[in-house]
Amino acid sequence: MASHIGQVRLRNEDCVACDESQGLAVLADGMGGHAGGAEASRMAVLTWMDRLHAVADGMLVEDDLRHAAHLANRAVFMASRRDPGLRGMGSTLVAGCFRPDGVLLVSNVGDSRLYRLRGDTLECLTRDHSVLRAQCDAGMIESASEGPAALRGLLTRAIGVEAEVVPDVAVFALEPDDHYLLCSDGLTDMVPDADIAEILVTLGGSPQVAAEHLVDLANDRGGMDNVSVIVVSSSASVRLGTELG
Amino acid sequence: MPRLILSMDGLVLKEMPLEKERTTIGRKPNNDIQIDNLAISGEHAAIVTIQNDAFLEDLNSTNGTYVNGQPVKKHVLQNNDVVELGKYRLKFLSEHSAGGSEQDEAVAFGSAVAVDSPAAGAPTSGEPATVAAPAANVVGMIQILSGTHAGRTLELSKSLTTLGKPGTQVAVITRRPHGYFITHVEGTVFPVVNGHSLDAQAHRLNDHDIVEIAGVKMEFFSQTVQQ
Fold this sequence. Notes:
The structure holds two protein chains of two kinds. Chain A is built from six helices and twelve strands. Chain A is α+β, with helices and mostly antiparallel strands. Chain B is mainly β. At the A-B interface, strand 1, helix 5, helix 6 and strand 12 of A face strand 14, strand 15 and strand 16 of B. Strand 12 (242-243) of chain A pairs parallel with strand 14 (160-165) of chain B.
């Protein structure tokens, strides 16, 4: 798949990395302490990417993503045990592997998300590992966005907090005109899905422009958190509102 | 002489006059401003100073160069602009730091994104006080001045309006709380505003700006809509 990738990262605690040749995109949103959050997300992304680069030959499979998340978890966990200044740090991780045979592998830990826009339909392909999401699943609250603000951002799984982590890994089929978005909660807390969909529908074919607009929108809405997005497009078509003659 | 104030985590590290015509910033020791940090590329950015004008250029750095929270490739520095490289900040002060110019609004907006993280303390208000935000009943309009649609008027009521010719040149006009902005989307030719070609950055539209996209000229203006 010829993918086009646009990425924007604002502020320190998030980290993103993309490799267009291998079709890899990964985003992490760090948390904890002064330097901790930034260090955790950076280590998570670098370790994850290094591991999958090491699987140079052959098609990446689900176990490769599980193993990469495991190594990222181990790296962050060990560092936080070694260095008192980094104690308690952790990170989310969301990643996509866009395989040339039209298969998408998605992996996530925490509340950073991967969305797919197909046609005009925006769908979140990941499931947040958050307290609000769990309460929602248990029927305690109507929707995760209605839960008490104090619980926002409280995760049930994260990279680097415990010795082991179980990432979610899922497999999807890519279609030619799909657009994909990886983002931290700095975006989804501020920008409703309908607005995300509008930007991806209109500008998805121009991923860098789309990524910048998404971050602008989060900031315009008063976003104070880290905002990072990666937009991956399999087609370069921009939907035109007004054609100039 | 314009100058830069280098800081990290709110701590001022040093103040440097922009003495040279070209000042380079990067991790390697041959830079004029060396920042020894892994998040900074070997050759990260450069500032070209011509008299009191300073042009910032990102030298394809890995982690990017931000001005007032927005990623930039090339940027004309305005007084009080905050350049961010990794965790480091460089505040640009021009010789005449009187302020009160129209550029101040860009700075005021920038302050909304200059907070590192919520943990860094009480966030300053993101409200750009000096910015005249478009009231709900003010809407931007485009009147097409040339080409086959000359005379036609478009209302920019949506948050995003794309304009252009597919495959040739496409631009998008976005409606934001502090005004309308035009951004290049695709094509080798960039939009022209009042005779000046834009770069990849979003550009704020002012009333009666003449915009040229895909060879078609048009005028931007705002209009009060009766509710």
